[in-house]
Design a protein that fits this description.
The complex is a heterotrimer of chains A (437), B (316) and C (277). Chain A is α+β, with helices and mostly antiparallel strands and 437 residues long. Chain A folds into two domains: 23-129 and 299-357, 3-Layer(aba) Sandwich (D-Maltodextrin-Binding Protein, domain 2); 138-297 and 374-432, Periplasmic binding protein-like II (D-Maltodextrin-Binding Protein, domain 2), CATH 3.40.190.10. In chain A, a hairpin with a 2-residue loop joins strand 4 and strand 5 (127-128). Chain A starts with 5 loop residues before the first helix and ends in a 5-residue tail after the last helix. Chain A is built from 19 helices and nine strands. The chains are: A alpha+beta (437), B mainly alpha (316), C mainly alpha (277).
Chain lengths: 437, 316, 277
């Protein structure tokens, strides 16, 4: 039963081996975001130029993929030759020696062309463990038409306080037009990404220098009170279960006057095949408040080769191809210039054709330049990462804190109580992991 | 649970011991054959149960995080302590119970009513039956996504449009009634299962008995109460048993809709294990949580079996 | 005053319309999913939702271009039929022996079998993954067949046991007097009588294996991935996907749904608990 497919596979392997010696199969685990789907669609091009390499794809939803890859790499499962991982995993796994170092890259690859902040994020102790496929920060999207009608104007980088004033003016629930859309669904990669950047702007931090959480401090209290007030009063109904997608759908159907989220959304909201407001979107930096530090996040999806891979050379061929300038050219040819994976290479942003075609590119570039994961907050912190904390326990802690904050947002617990619980939850976890006593 | 049902359970066990009559020799031969036939299943399940269980028990006693390889000291009951004293534990246990009981009640009541409804012939009964059981064939993740985004969404969902059509404010399901929304989705998936089993059971209901009762002047309600319902007792027991097992570990529906929030309102034990342990790859904690869930599930199952098991295993 | 015939007719009409109403309500989400699969992504989230729109096949074309549907479907078929077949091979003799050779331990064995289902998958992922790695079962259809067989076995034993309990013992005694061996007893006497019950057990096991989405996602890569993995590759937290997801879900559920519909008659007969008395 198990071998039903083997004959077919063997037949194709034999057919290939007549052309070259044995074809190496590279199994790639990747997320199903738009840019990766395009990469999968271009894999024919790679196989044509590398006849001795065959690509096998495992495309999964982000959360499922993360769990799948972590299980595999931590148990030496060896199922994958190329893994699509984020900034967060690269740091942790690189440190454990689970990834293959990517050194001696060819000169044509031009590794210095990669955004320094992204490259730093993917390196551990100066060694590069993954190549960035695309990168993102966060920024403010707003409806130019609505702003104009109301006689408002958006500064280059608004403050959160200004955002509240705008939201108040533009919030017209009876016309299904909501002042502001923000993430509310519980999850470390959902509401906590936004809430952490908002808290950063209010001068808060996850942990003090000796790893004590600070949720009951004045900064977090003020930030979360502001967030629940803003989104609760001037947001859409159901905000506490809206993630990136739900907000994208709302914004694209013209229900949101403003939205603060990932810079990759820039190409979605301006794409007229999926957005009703494609011509009316304006862009600004992510809002600041008492500080600009950590106001916009930094994330990158990158390709890495696990140490357990048995075809590292072929995997390396693929990884360097998919993150090269040549690949960007291929995407431009096939899918149009705005589809070039954003946020990884400086050369993309020096290309006038790209800057003119992609209205969001200028703000994306500025946001990425300002994001610095090694100096993310007003007060000093012992960790790196803007909307995340680079320790293995973070996913779990932030997921639990995320639930509490969504509880405060939906009004089923007061802010003070949610933060008190958040404090005790994170203290417990940090104690358990022996960071604090 | 009543004392009588407890006694009934004990009696059943002793009844079984006496077994059927027959010559001693033949009985021994037959019991050997019986043993031979039951053993493959038992053996397979024993291995399936024993090996992971042994590993789970072992892991639950050590510090074992996949992300900290090599650091595997013995920690005793620390993992259990942390899992049991988690803030979400009480809420999680309560939500698990509430979810199981509500869905059981809804699906059994709706199942009985629908089964009775489609028992009399009418135009297009075949199509109606097929439509009634269809949701059971849909993958849980898909039904959760469809319900959340296409039906229940307070802005663009179908229900919101219906509400607005009648001039009402759409209900914000996942904010105001998160657990109820999940119960709704899960019930939708499991009502068809109950309908399927009960509907077929209805066909074997003795028509003459019903007619006789009617001639005696019994109304439809009395017939339902005294004839139909007792007849359905055994299939209802089967529905409850099988559904309970699946409902105790509901996960996909919660993960895709609410992520366990807001607050702890939709966190059940399966989700708690996920967020406490699997997310940070703390295998020790996941194992401890798994074992605690097994204990709770077995207590629930034990009580359930005591209550309804008689229906299921005894010959009517 | 209405005549008896008229009242009866009126009652049928009333019951019929009520039943239709309930059925339409329960079926509505599936209908809506099907409808959405023919919309463009923009139409899919338009508010208020549209019942009438210009249908498009673009979602199905996109899926056809991007993924090899039949590869996944074939894996699903092999895995669910394979595990159901092996499961029945194990469950029928076990249920037979428990139903007709009851001992003191029977009831406890039955209960214990059910309790093996109580260990939540999220709690045992890592132990199972390690075992699979050591036995070379990762990303194989055989591995999934083994897992599904074991997961569904308790339920199959329970159901078959219940059907067997319905069969009068005299029939078996008669066969035995004719000199039938236990094997012949099962094959010639029991199986034909319990045919319907077995059919429904088989269908239940098929549905459960077909829709299982935890092990199938976590234990496979590209080789053995079934339709659940295909669905998971279309539900993204980034980007709009309702229409495509609806299309891929329709494709994923269609085979088992059609199979279920076709076997519905058999099933309705089979699930008649207490039918044979």
């Amino acid at each position: 039963m198990k071998t039903c497919f083997t004959p077919a596979l063997m037949a194709s392997a034999i057919a290939l081996s007549t052309a070259a010696t044995a074809a190496t199969t590279v199994t790639i685990g990747t997320v199903n975001n738009g840019d990766m789907i395009r990469m999968q669609e271009l894999s024919n091009e790679f196989e044509q130029s590398h006849p001795d390499i065959k690509l096998d794809w495992v495309v999964l939803e982000e959360n499922v993929l993360r769990q799948r890859l972590t299980t595999d790499i931590a148990t030496n499962g060896g199922q994958f030759d190329v893994m699509t991982i984020g900034l967060y995993e690269t740091g942790l796994w690189g440190e454990r020696g689970w990834l293959t170092e990517l050194d001696n890259l060819p000169a044509s690859y031009d590794v210095d062309d990669i955004f320094p902040s992204v490259r730093d994020g993917l390196s551990v102790h100066g060694k590069l463990y993954a190549l960035p496929f695309y990168g993102e920060s966060s920024m403010t999207y707003y409806r130019k038409d609505l702003f104009e009608k109301a006689g408002l104007s958006m500064p280059e980088q608004p403050t959160w306080e200004q955002m509240r004033e705008f939201a108040k003016t533009l919030h017209k629930p009876d016309q299904e037009q909501y002042g502001i859309c923000l993430r509310g669904k519980a999850g470390w990669g959902e509401n906590m990404a936004l809430v952490t950047t908002l808290a950063n702007a209010f001068g808060a931090r996850w942990f003090d220098e000796s790893w004590h959480p600070e949720f009951t401090g004045p900064e977090w209290t003020k930030a979360v009170e502001f967030y629940t007030d803003l989104l609760g009063n001037y947001g859409p109904p159901g905000a506490s279960s809206n993630g990136f997608n739900e907000n994208l759908a709302l914004f694209n159907s013209g229900k949101c006057a403003m939205w603060v989220d990932a810079t990759v959304a820039g190409s979605f909201v301006t794409d007229e095949s999926q957005s009703k407001v494609s011509n009316d979107v304006g862009f600004a930096l992510a809002p600041k408040e008492v500080t600009e530090k950590g106001a916009g996040w930094l994330w990158s999806w990158a390709l890495a080769i696990p140490a357990t891979s048995d075809s590292k050379d072929a995997a390396r061929e693929f990884v360097t191809w998919a993150t090269s300038k040549e690949y960007a050219g291929l995407v431009e040819q096939k899918f149009g210039i705005t589809a070039i994976p954003p946020g990884t290479r400086l050369s993309t942003y020096r290309n006038d054709a790209y800057m003119n075609a992609a209205a969001f590119a200028k703000t994306t570039l500025e946001s990425l330049k300002r994001a610095n994961p090694n100096d993310p907050t007003l007060k000093p912190v012992p960790y790196s990462g803007i909307q995340l904390v680079s320790i293995p326990e973070f996913q779990s802690i932030a997921t639990q804190v995320g639930k509490l904050i969504s509880g405060a947002l939906s009004g089923n617990m007061p802010v003070a109580q949610a933060l008190k619980s958040a404090q005790s939850v994170s203290e417990r976890e940090m104690k358990r992991a022996h960071y604090i006593k | 649970m009543s004392i009588t049902s407890l006694q009934a359970g004990v009696n059943t066990a002793s009844d079984m011991a006496t077994g059927s009559a027959g010559p001693k020799l033949q009985k021994r031969r037959r019991s050997r054959v019986g043993l031979a036939m039951v053993s493959p299943s038992v053996l397979a399940l024993l291995v399936w149960m024993a090996v992971p269980l042994a590993m789970t028990i072992y892991f639950s006693l050590i510090r074992y995080n996949l992300l900290y390889p090599g650091d595997n000291e013995f920690v005793g009951l620390e993992n259990f302590y942390y899992f049991l004293t988690d803030e979400g534990f009480v809420a999680g246990a309560f939500n698990t119970l509430w979810l199981v009981l509500s869905v059981l009640a809804i699906s059994v009541v709706a199942g009985v009513l629908i089964a009775v409804l489609v028992d009399t012939p009418f135009f297009g009964r075949g199509i109606v039956r097929v439509m009634l059981i269809s949701p059971f064939f849909i993958m849980p993740t898909v039904s959760a996504l469809v319900w959340k985004n296409l039906l229940l969404h307070p802005v663009s969902g179908v229900l919101a449009a219906v509400w607005r059509f009648f001039g009402a404010t759409p209900i914000d399901w996942f904010t105001d009634y998160p657990l109820q929304a999940i119960i709704l989705i899960v019930s939708w998936q499991w009502i068809p299962f109950a309908v399927l089993i009960l509907m077929t059971a209805m066909q074997s209901l003795d028509q003459e008995q019903k007619d006789a009762a009617r001639l005696d002047g019994a109304g439809p309600i009395a017939i339902f109460w005294h004839i139909t319902l007792p007849h359905l007792a055994r299939p209802i027991a089967v529905v409850i048993m099988i559904e309970t097992i699946f409902l105790l570990s509901i996960f996909a529906e919660i993960f895709t809709t609410t992520g366990g929030g807001p607050g702890y309102e939709t966190t059940n034990l399966a989700f708690l294990i996920y967020s406490q342990a699997l997310l940070q790859f703390d295998v020790g904690m996941a194992s401890a949580g798994g074992l605690i869930a097994v204990v709770i599930a077995n207590i629930a199952a034990f009580m359930l079996v005591r209550m309804i098991g008689k229906n299921l295993t005894d010959k009517a | 005053m209405l005549s008896l015939k008229q009242t009866r007719h009126l009652r049928t009409v009333l019951i019929g319309s009520l039943a239709w109403l309930v059925a339409l309500a329960i079926f509505f989400p599936i209908f809506w999913m099907l409808l959405t699969s023919f919309k463009t992504e923009i139409d899919a989230f338009t508010s208020p939702p549209q019942l009438f729109f210009a249908p498009t096949l673009e979602n199905y074309i996109h899926i056809d271009e991007r993924s090899d549907y039949f590869h996944y479907a074939w894996n699903s078929v092999v895995v669910s039929f394979g595990s159901t077949f092996i499961g029945m091979l194990l469950a029928v003799p076990a249920a037979y022996s428990m139903a007709f050779f009851e001992t003191k331990r029977t009831k406890n064995t039955l209960l214990w079998m059910l309790s093996t289902k109580m260990l939540p998958p999220v709690g045992v992922l890592v132990p199972i993954y390690l075992l699979f790695k050591d036995f070379g079962l990762l990303d194989t259809k055989l591995g999934l067949v083994i897992i599904y067989t074991l997961i569904n076995l308790p339920i199959m034993v329970w159901m078959v046991y219940t059907y067997f309990k319905e069969i009068p013992k005299d029939i078996l005694e008669a066969a035995r007097l004719d000199g039938a061996t236990p094997g012949q007893e099962i094959y010639r006497v029991l199986l034909p009588i319990a045919k319907g019950g077995l059919a429904s057990t088989i269908l239940l096991s098929l549905i459960l294996s077909w829709n299982e989405a935890f092990w199938s996602l976590n234990l496979t890569a590209s080789g053995a991935a079934p339709l659940t993995a295909l669905v998971a590759s279309y539900s993204s937290p980034e980007g709009l996907f309702w229409a495509k997801l609806s299309a891929v879900s329709t494709l994923a559920c269609a085979p088992i749904l059609i199979f279920g519909w076709l076997s519905q008659k058999q099933l309705v007969r089979g699930l008649s608990f207490g039918a044979v008395k």
